[in-house]
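Reminder: ligand-aware prediction takes two inputs, not one.
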Amino acid sequence: ESIKVFAPATVANVACGFDIFGFAVDAPGDEVIVKKRNDKQIVITKISGDEGKLTLDASKNAVTVPIIAFLKKNGIEQGFDVELHKKMPLGSGLGSSSASSVAGVFAVNEILGKPCTTKSLLPFSMEGERIACGSAHADNVAPALMGGFVVIRSYNPLDIFSVPTPSELFVTIVHPDIEVNTKDARHILRNEVSMKNTIAQMGNVAGMIAGLMQSDYDLIARSMVDFIIEPVRAILIPEFWEVKHAALEAGALGCSISGAGPSVFAFSKGQSTAEKVAMAMKTAFEKASIHCNAYVSGV
Ligand code: HSE
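Here is what comes back for the chain with L-homoserine:
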């Protein structure tokens, strides 16, 4: 008996919502196949698409750590063979480790006849994130698990909710061929934030949610400003400001860093604008001889 599960890439932070906003895209994503064993072991039998970068040690891989935690918590003594097919770049700011974490534990829950609700798989998926980058933030795993746009209202206790999105909202994601380690990208952030920036950021967080819920594209555009994280992390992404400028010139509502980067994302109203924005952003990276891939998806 085996089961195959797909989990999508995700864009975390979404400009103003560091660690609290994230949404899933249609593609790319990861594929995980789990198969019951006749013993209690969790074994990674195959990994593809990772250029040999990921460990086959099940106690250290983001795909199996959530499975192990889930089985332990639920007192289930069943072993699994796990195959991981990475269909998205690692260290890209697209929630690569999250897609693996979610697909793995979701697959095991399914094959066992769903002893747990989808939402209750979140804390286990977060353990995968912790092993991958040292921090159990949920803004990639939650949308990869639930789909759509998700808000983490609180981490302790964990409280998440979904937000509806306008039908014409599209995202362009451009992934430049450089790697940014999430751990490093978190390390460079300051621990203190000024009162002025906190107030400005809170206004944008509120504006983003209201804009999404009311299909108010102008309000979304005005709210897509990050006073706290983007100015610090932009230095990790060559040509970031040029790419952002190109996206806005091409008609994007706004543009910022996807998760911890180096991918850059932009929102647009309508798919054709999102395609135009993709070309403009790609061209800006390529002007500096940085090769990149672009994706366009509904939000
Ligand atoms: N919110 C996280 C960060 C997402 O920006 O560090 C990274 O995966």
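Residues 12-13, 18-19, 137, 139-140, 182, 185-186, 259-260 surround L-homoserine (CB under 6 Å). Strands lie at 2-12, 21-36, 42-48, 80-86, 149-155, 158-163, 169-176, 254-257, 264-269, 292-298. We will return to this case in the review session.
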